[in-house]
Amino acid sequence: MFFQLYKTGIARVWRSLLEHWANTDFASHIVVLDRGNTAPKINGIRYRTIANYDYNNTEQDREMLQQICDEEGADLFISSYYTTPIATPSVFMAYDMIPEVLGGDLTEPMWREKHRAIAHASSYIAISENTAKDINRFFPDVPLAKIQVAHCGVDPLFKPATEEEIRAFKYKYGINKPYFMLGSLGGYKNPELFFQAFAQLANRESFDLLTTGSGIYSLNNWRPYTAGCTFHGLQLEDEELRLAYAGAIALVYPSLYEGFGMPVAEAMACGCPVITTPNASLPEVGGEAVMYINDKDVNAMADALCEVQKPNVRNSLIGAGLGQVQKFSWATMADLVRDSLLSAINTTIAGEVNYLLCPDWEADEDELLGELAEIIGNLAAAHGANPEQFTEPINVIVEVSGLGVEDGNLALSSIAMNLMMEEELDLEAGIKFTFIEDYTLAQWEQLLPQLTAEISLIHGRTIAAIEETEANTVTIQGDGNNYVIFPDWTAEEEHLLGMIYSAIETLQEQVNLEDINLLVNITNAGSEEDASVAFSSIVMNLMMEGIELPESMGVNFVDFSSVQWQSLGDLLRDKITLPGEFLPDSLPIAQTELS
Questions:
Q1: How far apart are CA 47 and CA 175, in angstroms?
Q2: According to DSSP H, which parts of 199-297 are helical?
Q3: Which residues pair with 179 in a beta bridge?
Q4: What whole-number distance in Å separates Cα of residue 351 and Cα of residue 433?
Q5: Backbone φ/ψ region at 424: left (φ over 0), alpha (ψ -120 to 50), beta
Q6: Is pTM beyond 0.85 here?
């Protein structure tokens, strides 16, 4: 959308993101809707040309976008500039809140569509912390915690230039004096602060002025402040914009508001000192590497224009700026936006209780379907036995790579039908199925933390991408060989270790430890790390006593919620009673059949 309208900063953001994604497996999940063939063509990205956007036909455009989403099977929609489909979930990316903050006419079609997009979105991204806060301020229904901040990057092209490069640039454009560089000369960019201060300089005729932003044709407004100076209004491609920054005495950027402040970052990357204001997102970008001036303080600006001419001040700002700009990377932004998009997709499939099944679809069909039927039946029975605990069905996420969603749906529908007929279980109320296939590593990284547990199958398969993630996923054995203990982690350390030690000894006497999965409750443990460290010391003591826990024995640390506990049902074999154990009040343990 934005490429149709403008070629300014937002276009730079999207071109940079697409260029990064084109070299990753995420590209296979992207379709760019190209308005009137205006988007930059990047190898590795798939495009679909569609009609130009028309603010006079927004309803028709929404219908068209929804039809395309349906045809493409899109899970999620994101617009570069505030368009929305009708039903497909969307992510809203905010670049700034200028019209809201500065009192723009919010009845204009562009801003009406922006507010519609905010209302439609299920997830949000902002290019600065300040922009995220402004979204929350004007739209309190959007909590800050729901807004992913992804700072813009700086193209590696922007870097310091040689003296020879700068001389050639100045010669080409007839710049004969040292020069101050400005951004746009319009509106909220607040150029009058610079001009009023510049007019106070005793040596102002020793400088030229250069601007590369909009508002060049309003130069006559500033002639009284710049008598004796040559004003260069240039439209530059990035290669020469880099040289303009590098050759300037300073970039003067006295803006009243910025969503990010790209020129500040680019100037620092080119070794150009920056004078700006402490407004909005500018301190996020400039850090301690720029000079800040109140946006109404003409005398302070005049002092800064003098100070920045001093070699020691310039060198200090240049060095600090080159360090500060290292914080901003298009690759980092691309990864954050990608993860936010994948998280938004996963959020639409995650429920109150989420179990993951990864069946081996090449296994014997009868044996596999029999195993799945038993697990699903157990989950449905647990849901039916405790309806007051659940506000929605248990979500069973089924990995169907190699089989396909359609065939996976047929297989699970057949199981569900048999269970409803033979076991009289109400699966429609108790269980819902979500099918996933060919998830990338990034998608698994987003999904796994949302799982209640992965249910391991006898006829299951290992997903390599899951093993590559750092998520500590709880595993439940599908055959029901799951035991649980509730240690009191606040007990004296020796007593605590003795309790757990005795529990494992008891287990060893009763069952084959190779076949079991031990769930260790950590509600009052402080943290999972604390519990893990304590448990490791117990394992060491057991080994010294000649009891070595087999590698196949699973140990999972769980801070049970009431719904999680109730959903396990017959998947739990037993609760091992400990002396002085801690049983959370929130868990109806006494109502279970466990001993």
A1: 43
A2: 238-247, 262-269, 282-286
A3: 208
A4: 10
A5: left
A6: no
